[in-house]
Amino acid sequence: MGAYMGLQYIALHHKELPMRRFIGLATVAALLVPSIASAADVVSAQQARTVALRDGSAVVFFTNAEDKFEVVTTVSATEAAPALRFTHDLAAGQSATIELSGDAGTPAARLVLTRDGDKLRVESGSKTASTGL
Question: I want to staple 112 with a disulfide (CB 3.0 to 4.6 A). Which of 47, 48, 55, 123 is the partner?
Protein backbone atom coordinates (compact mmCIF):
# COMPACT_ATOMS: atom_id res chain seq x y z
CA MET A 1 0.00 0.00 0.00
CA GLY A 2 2.87 2.37 0.74
CA ALA A 3 4.16 2.07 -2.83
CA TYR A 4 0.72 2.96 -4.19
CA MET A 5 0.47 6.04 -1.95
CA GLY A 6 3.92 7.12 -3.12
CA LEU A 7 2.87 6.76 -6.75
CA GLN A 8 -0.34 8.66 -6.07
CA TYR A 9 1.67 11.50 -4.47
CA ILE A 10 3.96 11.66 -7.52
CA ALA A 11 0.98 11.76 -9.89
CA LEU A 12 -0.77 14.52 -7.97
CA HIS A 13 2.28 16.72 -7.45
CA HIS A 14 4.12 16.21 -10.72
CA LYS A 15 1.83 17.03 -13.62
CA GLU A 16 4.38 15.83 -16.19
CA LEU A 17 3.79 12.17 -15.23
CA PRO A 18 1.35 10.88 -17.85
CA MET A 19 -1.75 9.13 -16.56
CA ARG A 20 -0.95 5.95 -18.52
CA ARG A 21 2.44 5.70 -16.85
CA PHE A 22 0.87 6.29 -13.43
CA ILE A 23 -1.72 3.55 -14.02
CA GLY A 24 1.00 1.18 -15.22
CA LEU A 25 3.16 1.86 -12.17
CA ALA A 26 0.16 1.53 -9.84
CA THR A 27 -0.71 -1.82 -11.43
CA VAL A 28 2.84 -3.11 -11.00
CA ALA A 29 2.86 -1.95 -7.36
CA ALA A 30 -0.47 -3.68 -6.71
CA LEU A 31 0.86 -6.93 -8.17
CA LEU A 32 3.97 -6.78 -6.00
CA VAL A 33 2.02 -6.25 -2.77
CA PRO A 34 0.75 -9.63 -1.51
CA SER A 35 -3.00 -9.85 -1.15
CA ILE A 36 -4.15 -9.89 2.47
CA ALA A 37 -7.52 -11.27 1.43
CA SER A 38 -6.16 -14.39 -0.27
CA ALA A 39 -7.95 -17.48 0.98
CA ALA A 40 -4.97 -19.81 0.78
CA ASP A 41 -1.25 -19.68 0.25
CA VAL A 42 0.21 -22.28 -2.13
CA VAL A 43 3.56 -23.79 -1.21
CA SER A 44 5.85 -25.82 -3.47
CA ALA A 45 8.18 -28.59 -2.32
CA GLN A 46 11.24 -27.44 -0.35
CA GLN A 47 9.73 -23.99 0.29
CA ALA A 48 8.79 -22.82 3.78
CA ARG A 49 5.92 -20.54 4.78
CA THR A 50 5.59 -18.67 8.05
CA VAL A 51 2.01 -18.10 9.18
CA ALA A 52 0.91 -15.87 12.07
CA LEU A 53 -1.14 -17.70 14.71
CA ARG A 54 -2.34 -15.50 17.58
CA ASP A 55 0.78 -14.15 19.32
CA GLY A 56 2.94 -16.88 17.83
CA SER A 57 3.58 -18.44 14.46
CA ALA A 58 3.80 -21.64 12.48
CA VAL A 59 6.44 -22.58 9.92
CA VAL A 60 5.21 -25.04 7.28
CA PHE A 61 7.13 -26.94 4.60
CA PHE A 62 6.86 -30.30 2.86
CA THR A 63 8.96 -32.81 1.00
CA ASN A 64 7.69 -34.96 -1.84
CA ALA A 65 10.02 -37.87 -2.45
CA GLU A 66 9.72 -41.62 -2.88
CA ASP A 67 5.90 -41.53 -2.96
CA LYS A 68 5.84 -39.77 0.41
CA PHE A 69 4.29 -36.29 0.74
CA GLU A 70 5.43 -35.30 4.23
CA VAL A 71 4.26 -31.99 5.71
CA VAL A 72 6.23 -30.59 8.66
CA THR A 73 4.71 -27.82 10.79
CA THR A 74 6.50 -26.18 13.72
CA VAL A 75 4.19 -24.13 15.96
CA SER A 76 5.08 -21.79 18.81
CA ALA A 77 2.33 -20.02 20.77
CA THR A 78 4.69 -17.20 21.80
CA GLU A 79 8.36 -16.42 21.37
CA ALA A 80 9.03 -17.67 24.92
CA ALA A 81 7.02 -20.90 24.58
CA PRO A 82 8.63 -24.14 23.44
CA ALA A 83 7.91 -25.07 19.83
CA LEU A 84 5.84 -28.11 18.87
CA ARG A 85 6.51 -30.01 15.65
CA PHE A 86 3.82 -31.91 13.75
CA THR A 87 4.43 -34.20 10.77
CA HIS A 88 1.71 -35.45 8.45
CA ASP A 89 1.85 -37.79 5.46
CA LEU A 90 -0.91 -36.56 3.15
CA ALA A 91 -2.52 -38.39 0.24
CA ALA A 92 -3.89 -36.40 -2.72
CA GLY A 93 -6.80 -34.21 -1.57
CA GLN A 94 -6.24 -34.99 2.10
CA SER A 95 -6.03 -32.26 4.78
CA ALA A 96 -4.61 -31.85 8.27
CA THR A 97 -5.85 -29.24 10.74
CA ILE A 98 -3.94 -27.66 13.63
CA GLU A 99 -5.80 -25.41 16.08
CA LEU A 100 -4.30 -23.17 18.73
CA SER A 101 -6.83 -22.29 21.42
CA GLY A 102 -6.85 -19.00 23.28
CA ASP A 103 -8.71 -17.48 26.18
CA ALA A 104 -12.23 -18.75 26.87
CA GLY A 105 -14.72 -17.25 24.44
CA THR A 106 -12.13 -16.25 21.83
CA PRO A 107 -11.85 -18.00 18.46
CA ALA A 108 -9.20 -20.67 18.07
CA ALA A 109 -6.43 -19.92 15.57
CA ARG A 110 -6.73 -22.52 12.84
CA LEU A 111 -4.27 -23.79 10.25
CA VAL A 112 -5.53 -26.12 7.50
CA LEU A 113 -2.94 -27.89 5.33
CA THR A 114 -4.31 -29.51 2.15
CA ARG A 115 -2.43 -31.50 -0.46
CA ASP A 116 -3.34 -30.25 -3.93
CA GLY A 117 -1.46 -32.43 -6.42
CA ASP A 118 2.24 -31.69 -5.92
CA LYS A 119 1.53 -28.46 -3.99
CA LEU A 120 0.35 -27.65 -0.49
CA ARG A 121 -2.45 -25.18 0.26
CA VAL A 122 -2.02 -23.40 3.60
CA GLU A 123 -5.13 -21.70 4.99
CA SER A 124 -5.19 -19.85 8.29
CA GLY A 125 -7.87 -18.07 10.26
CA SER A 126 -10.22 -18.47 13.19
CA LYS A 127 -12.81 -21.16 13.62
CA THR A 128 -14.78 -21.77 16.78
CA ALA A 129 -14.78 -20.13 20.19
CA SER A 130 -12.44 -21.63 22.75
CA THR A 131 -14.04 -23.24 25.77
CA GLY A 132 -11.01 -22.78 27.99
CA LEU A 133 -10.52 -26.55 28.42
Answer: 123
